[in-house]
Amino acid sequence: MQLLANYRDRQQAIRVFWLLGIYPFFCVTSVINLCVPRAAILVDFVNTIYFSICCLKFMHITQFYFGGRKQMLEYLQTNGIKFPLQSPPACCCCPCLPNVAPSRSNIIKIYLLLLQFVIAPPLVSFIITVVAIDSASLAVATKEMESVFVLVRTISTSLAFYGLILIFRVSRGPLSGQSITAKFGLMKLAILFGHIQILVFNILGAFSVINCDQLWSSASKAAWINAACLAPEMACLFLLARRVYSRDDRPMSEYALIGESGSFPRAGSQASVLFGQ
Protein backbone atom coordinates (compact mmCIF):
# COMPACT_ATOMS: atom_id res chain seq x y z
CA MET A 1 0.00 0.00 0.00
CA GLN A 2 2.91 2.35 0.64
CA LEU A 3 4.04 1.78 -2.94
CA LEU A 4 0.61 2.67 -4.34
CA ALA A 5 0.54 5.86 -2.25
CA ASN A 6 3.08 7.27 -4.72
CA TYR A 7 0.48 7.16 -7.51
CA ARG A 8 -1.37 10.43 -8.01
CA ASP A 9 -4.13 8.95 -10.18
CA ARG A 10 -6.48 6.78 -8.11
CA GLN A 11 -7.71 4.67 -11.02
CA GLN A 12 -4.15 3.98 -12.12
CA ALA A 13 -3.22 2.99 -8.57
CA ILE A 14 -6.11 0.50 -8.54
CA ARG A 15 -4.96 -1.01 -11.84
CA VAL A 16 -1.40 -1.35 -10.57
CA PHE A 17 -2.77 -2.91 -7.37
CA TRP A 18 -4.52 -5.57 -9.45
CA LEU A 19 -1.38 -6.34 -11.45
CA LEU A 20 0.88 -6.44 -8.41
CA GLY A 21 -1.66 -8.71 -6.75
CA ILE A 22 -1.17 -11.42 -9.38
CA TYR A 23 1.95 -12.76 -7.72
CA PRO A 24 0.96 -12.92 -4.03
CA PHE A 25 -2.51 -14.11 -5.05
CA PHE A 26 -1.13 -17.04 -7.07
CA CYS A 27 1.40 -17.73 -4.33
CA VAL A 28 -1.26 -17.93 -1.61
CA THR A 29 -3.62 -20.08 -3.69
CA SER A 30 -0.72 -22.41 -4.51
CA VAL A 31 0.03 -22.84 -0.81
CA ILE A 32 -3.67 -23.59 -0.23
CA ASN A 33 -3.47 -26.18 -2.99
CA LEU A 34 -0.44 -27.75 -1.32
CA CYS A 35 -2.24 -27.94 2.03
CA VAL A 36 -5.61 -29.00 0.60
CA PRO A 37 -4.97 -30.98 -2.62
CA ARG A 38 -8.68 -31.55 -3.22
CA ALA A 39 -9.11 -27.80 -3.67
CA ALA A 40 -7.06 -27.84 -6.90
CA ILE A 41 -10.07 -27.40 -9.20
CA LEU A 42 -11.50 -24.53 -7.15
CA VAL A 43 -8.07 -22.86 -6.87
CA ASP A 44 -7.59 -23.07 -10.62
CA PHE A 45 -11.05 -21.55 -11.14
CA VAL A 46 -10.28 -18.57 -8.87
CA ASN A 47 -6.83 -18.03 -10.41
CA THR A 48 -8.29 -18.02 -13.91
CA ILE A 49 -10.85 -15.34 -13.05
CA TYR A 50 -8.30 -13.10 -11.34
CA PHE A 51 -5.70 -13.26 -14.08
CA SER A 52 -8.23 -12.72 -16.87
CA ILE A 53 -9.31 -9.47 -15.19
CA CYS A 54 -5.65 -8.43 -14.91
CA CYS A 55 -5.21 -8.79 -18.67
CA LEU A 56 -7.88 -6.13 -19.15
CA LYS A 57 -6.23 -3.97 -16.50
CA PHE A 58 -2.94 -4.13 -18.39
CA MET A 59 -4.62 -2.84 -21.55
CA HIS A 60 -6.18 -0.01 -19.52
CA ILE A 61 -2.75 0.87 -18.11
CA THR A 62 -1.33 1.04 -21.63
CA GLN A 63 -4.14 3.35 -22.72
CA PHE A 64 -3.55 5.52 -19.64
CA TYR A 65 0.09 6.01 -20.65
CA PHE A 66 -1.10 7.33 -24.01
CA GLY A 67 -3.55 9.65 -22.23
CA GLY A 68 -6.66 7.59 -22.97
CA ARG A 69 -8.13 5.44 -25.73
CA LYS A 70 -8.84 8.42 -27.97
CA GLN A 71 -5.33 9.84 -27.54
CA MET A 72 -3.83 6.41 -28.16
CA LEU A 73 -5.73 6.09 -31.43
CA GLU A 74 -4.76 9.60 -32.53
CA TYR A 75 -1.08 9.01 -31.76
CA LEU A 76 -0.94 5.72 -33.66
CA GLN A 77 -2.74 7.19 -36.67
CA THR A 78 -0.61 10.35 -36.72
CA ASN A 79 2.67 8.43 -36.57
CA GLY A 80 1.60 5.70 -39.00
CA ILE A 81 2.02 2.88 -36.46
CA LYS A 82 0.10 -0.25 -37.46
CA PHE A 83 -0.88 -3.48 -35.73
CA PRO A 84 1.33 -6.36 -37.00
CA LEU A 85 -1.09 -9.26 -37.38
CA GLN A 86 1.75 -11.73 -38.03
CA SER A 87 2.48 -11.90 -34.30
CA PRO A 88 2.85 -14.88 -31.96
CA PRO A 89 1.40 -17.08 -30.70
CA ALA A 90 -1.69 -17.23 -32.91
CA CYS A 91 -0.39 -15.95 -36.26
CA CYS A 92 3.41 -16.15 -36.11
CA CYS A 93 3.35 -18.74 -38.92
CA CYS A 94 1.37 -16.45 -41.24
CA PRO A 95 3.87 -13.88 -42.62
CA CYS A 96 1.43 -13.05 -45.41
CA LEU A 97 -0.89 -11.27 -42.99
CA PRO A 98 -0.83 -7.47 -43.39
CA ASN A 99 -0.19 -4.72 -40.89
CA VAL A 100 -3.56 -3.24 -39.97
CA ALA A 101 -4.05 0.49 -39.54
CA PRO A 102 -5.28 1.54 -36.08
CA SER A 103 -8.96 2.35 -35.86
CA ARG A 104 -11.63 2.36 -33.19
CA SER A 105 -13.09 -0.91 -34.48
CA ASN A 106 -9.68 -2.63 -34.50
CA ILE A 107 -8.96 -1.58 -30.92
CA ILE A 108 -12.38 -2.88 -29.90
CA LYS A 109 -11.58 -6.21 -31.58
CA ILE A 110 -8.35 -6.46 -29.60
CA TYR A 111 -10.31 -5.62 -26.47
CA LEU A 112 -12.70 -8.48 -27.30
CA LEU A 113 -9.74 -10.86 -27.56
CA LEU A 114 -8.97 -10.03 -23.94
CA LEU A 115 -12.61 -10.00 -22.90
CA GLN A 116 -13.20 -13.57 -24.10
CA PHE A 117 -10.44 -14.63 -21.71
CA VAL A 118 -12.58 -13.29 -18.86
CA ILE A 119 -15.54 -15.42 -19.96
CA ALA A 120 -14.52 -18.69 -21.64
CA PRO A 121 -11.96 -20.33 -19.28
CA PRO A 122 -13.77 -19.33 -16.05
CA LEU A 123 -17.06 -20.62 -17.47
CA VAL A 124 -15.62 -24.01 -18.40
CA SER A 125 -13.72 -24.16 -15.11
CA PHE A 126 -16.95 -23.39 -13.23
CA ILE A 127 -18.74 -26.24 -14.99
CA ILE A 128 -15.95 -28.66 -14.06
CA THR A 129 -16.06 -27.41 -10.46
CA VAL A 130 -19.81 -28.03 -10.26
CA VAL A 131 -19.41 -31.52 -11.73
CA ALA A 132 -16.56 -32.30 -9.33
CA ILE A 133 -18.79 -31.49 -6.35
CA ASP A 134 -20.92 -34.52 -7.22
CA SER A 135 -18.64 -37.36 -6.16
CA ALA A 136 -20.77 -39.91 -8.00
CA SER A 137 -20.00 -38.38 -11.39
CA LEU A 138 -16.45 -37.31 -10.57
CA ALA A 139 -14.71 -40.35 -11.98
CA VAL A 140 -16.74 -40.44 -15.20
CA ALA A 141 -17.36 -36.85 -16.20
CA THR A 142 -14.50 -34.84 -14.79
CA LYS A 143 -11.73 -36.58 -16.72
CA GLU A 144 -13.51 -36.05 -20.05
CA MET A 145 -14.37 -32.46 -19.23
CA GLU A 146 -10.81 -31.80 -18.12
CA SER A 147 -9.62 -32.53 -21.66
CA VAL A 148 -12.20 -30.08 -23.01
CA PHE A 149 -11.08 -27.48 -20.48
CA VAL A 150 -7.43 -27.88 -21.48
CA LEU A 151 -8.39 -27.32 -25.14
CA VAL A 152 -10.60 -24.29 -24.41
CA ARG A 153 -8.04 -22.79 -22.08
CA THR A 154 -5.21 -23.26 -24.58
CA ILE A 155 -7.14 -21.52 -27.36
CA SER A 156 -8.44 -18.76 -25.08
CA THR A 157 -5.02 -18.08 -23.55
CA SER A 158 -3.42 -17.92 -27.00
CA LEU A 159 -6.00 -15.41 -28.23
CA ALA A 160 -5.64 -13.23 -25.13
CA PHE A 161 -1.85 -13.32 -25.36
CA TYR A 162 -2.14 -12.43 -29.05
CA GLY A 163 -4.17 -9.35 -28.14
CA LEU A 164 -1.62 -8.31 -25.52
CA ILE A 165 1.24 -8.68 -28.00
CA LEU A 166 -0.57 -6.54 -30.58
CA ILE A 167 -1.00 -3.79 -28.00
CA PHE A 168 2.59 -4.13 -26.84
CA ARG A 169 4.16 -4.02 -30.30
CA VAL A 170 2.56 -0.69 -31.14
CA SER A 171 3.33 0.70 -27.67
CA ARG A 172 6.90 -0.33 -26.91
CA GLY A 173 8.40 2.54 -28.92
CA PRO A 174 6.19 5.42 -27.76
CA LEU A 175 5.97 4.12 -24.17
CA SER A 176 9.59 3.14 -23.65
CA GLY A 177 9.82 5.80 -20.95
CA GLN A 178 7.05 4.12 -18.97
CA SER A 179 8.99 0.80 -18.85
CA ILE A 180 6.29 -0.88 -20.92
CA THR A 181 8.74 -3.60 -22.04
CA ALA A 182 9.50 -4.66 -18.48
CA LYS A 183 5.81 -4.54 -17.52
CA PHE A 184 4.80 -6.61 -20.52
CA GLY A 185 7.64 -9.02 -19.73
CA LEU A 186 6.15 -9.56 -16.28
CA MET A 187 2.80 -10.35 -17.88
CA LYS A 188 4.50 -12.86 -20.18
CA LEU A 189 6.15 -14.57 -17.24
CA ALA A 190 2.85 -14.62 -15.34
CA ILE A 191 1.16 -16.28 -18.32
CA LEU A 192 4.06 -18.73 -18.65
CA PHE A 193 4.04 -19.83 -15.02
CA GLY A 194 0.39 -19.26 -14.18
CA HIS A 195 -1.23 -20.74 -17.29
CA ILE A 196 1.09 -22.49 -19.71
CA GLN A 197 2.83 -24.36 -16.90
CA ILE A 198 -0.55 -25.46 -15.54
CA LEU A 199 -1.60 -26.64 -19.01
CA VAL A 200 1.57 -28.72 -19.29
CA PHE A 201 0.98 -30.38 -15.92
CA ASN A 202 -2.70 -30.94 -16.74
CA ILE A 203 -1.73 -32.71 -19.95
CA LEU A 204 0.87 -34.81 -18.14
CA GLY A 205 -1.72 -35.75 -15.55
CA ALA A 206 -4.46 -36.48 -18.09
CA PHE A 207 -2.23 -38.92 -20.00
CA SER A 208 -0.84 -40.47 -16.78
CA VAL A 209 2.72 -39.41 -17.60
CA ILE A 210 3.02 -38.56 -13.91
CA ASN A 211 2.57 -41.86 -12.09
CA CYS A 212 -0.26 -42.27 -9.63
CA ASP A 213 -0.01 -44.03 -6.26
CA GLN A 214 -2.33 -45.23 -3.52
CA LEU A 215 -3.10 -41.72 -2.29
CA TRP A 216 -2.81 -39.64 -5.46
CA SER A 217 -4.33 -39.89 -8.89
CA SER A 218 -2.18 -38.74 -11.81
CA ALA A 219 -4.18 -35.51 -12.17
CA SER A 220 -4.05 -34.72 -8.44
CA LYS A 221 -0.34 -35.38 -8.26
CA ALA A 222 0.29 -33.18 -11.31
CA ALA A 223 -1.72 -30.34 -9.73
CA TRP A 224 0.24 -30.68 -6.48
CA ILE A 225 3.62 -30.58 -8.26
CA ASN A 226 2.49 -27.53 -10.23
CA ALA A 227 1.49 -25.75 -7.01
CA ALA A 228 4.85 -26.60 -5.44
CA CYS A 229 6.61 -24.98 -8.41
CA LEU A 230 4.25 -22.02 -8.75
CA ALA A 231 4.51 -20.69 -5.19
CA PRO A 232 8.26 -19.85 -5.25
CA GLU A 233 8.08 -18.70 -8.88
CA MET A 234 5.41 -16.12 -8.10
CA ALA A 235 7.19 -15.02 -4.93
CA CYS A 236 10.30 -14.19 -6.98
CA LEU A 237 8.27 -12.42 -9.67
CA PHE A 238 6.59 -10.26 -7.04
CA LEU A 239 9.95 -8.84 -5.98
CA LEU A 240 10.70 -7.94 -9.59
CA ALA A 241 7.21 -6.51 -10.16
CA ARG A 242 7.47 -4.30 -7.11
CA ARG A 243 10.64 -2.82 -8.52
CA VAL A 244 9.16 -2.26 -11.99
CA TYR A 245 5.99 -0.56 -10.68
CA SER A 246 7.75 1.49 -8.00
CA ARG A 247 7.62 4.66 -10.14
CA ASP A 248 4.44 6.59 -10.88
CA ASP A 249 4.74 6.69 -14.67
CA ARG A 250 2.60 9.44 -16.16
CA PRO A 251 0.91 9.81 -19.57
CA MET A 252 3.03 10.90 -22.52
CA SER A 253 1.44 14.34 -22.63
CA GLU A 254 2.55 15.17 -19.08
CA TYR A 255 6.13 14.15 -19.80
CA ALA A 256 6.12 16.33 -22.90
CA LEU A 257 4.84 19.32 -20.94
CA ILE A 258 7.59 19.13 -18.33
CA GLY A 259 10.26 18.36 -20.90
CA GLU A 260 11.23 14.90 -19.65
CA SER A 261 10.85 13.03 -22.92
CA GLY A 262 14.59 13.09 -23.44
CA SER A 263 15.13 11.06 -20.27
CA PHE A 264 13.20 8.07 -21.57
CA PRO A 265 15.21 4.84 -21.79
CA ARG A 266 16.03 3.64 -25.25
CA ALA A 267 14.78 0.42 -26.84
CA GLY A 268 18.06 -1.29 -25.99
CA SER A 269 17.74 -0.57 -22.29
CA GLN A 270 18.27 -3.17 -19.59
CA ALA A 271 14.55 -3.96 -19.46
CA SER A 272 14.43 -4.59 -23.21
CA VAL A 273 17.42 -6.93 -23.04
CA LEU A 274 15.99 -8.72 -20.01
CA PHE A 275 12.73 -9.66 -21.67
CA GLY A 276 14.01 -10.03 -25.21
CA GLN A 277 11.72 -7.55 -26.93
Automatic annotation (TrEMBL):
Any one cellular-component term (Gene Ontology): membrane
Classification via Pfam families: Solute_trans_a
Coiled coil (UniProt feature): none
Major subcellular location class: membrane
Database matches in InterPro entries: Ostalpha/TMEM184C
Location(s), subcellular: Membrane
Membrane topology label: Multi-pass membrane protein
PANTHER family for the chain: ORGANIC SOLUTE TRANSPORTER-RELATED
Protein name: Organic solute transporter subunit alpha
Organism: Macrostomum lignano
